[in-house]
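User: Can you predict the 3D structure for this chain?
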Amino acid sequence: MSSDLHRRAAAITTGGASSIQDEERAVLAVFDAASSAWTDGDANAFVEWYAEDATVILPGFYLRGKADVRAGMGNAFAGPLQGSERIHTIQSVRFLSDDTAIVITRSATTFPGEAEPPAERWESATWVLSKGEGRWLFEAYHSCAAGAEPAGADPAP
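Assistant: Here is the predicted structure, written as structure tokens:
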């Protein structure tokens, strides 16, 4: 991940956020930083945004703790995910408390040469983040296959 983006994300996610909008920007900055680390194929920078005991559940995988996430992503970045990018479209951000947020995304991975991921690669994901020592981190992630359109995309009658 570029060190400039990393520094900006760290500055946004640490200390002093005073409103819901500030906190939401800080939470979203974590997604930007983690996505940048993904693009760079940098497992160490990627897991910097995960809590020590974070869990990741996705089809075929259950990763327990930051070390498992680092190992799994390191292998993936060196193999099947090499050169890929991660896209997150934020569907909602909900704060359960001053230090806990739930984020729902529509996410996908693009591979070299793809302008857009195919419809079947989109996922619906739930993320739980916590704020400790003034910094937001991923605590839990779960994804499953998404339909072609996000839920609620149809206009109300």
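The chain is about 30% helix and 35% strand. The first strand starts at residue 50 and ends at 58.
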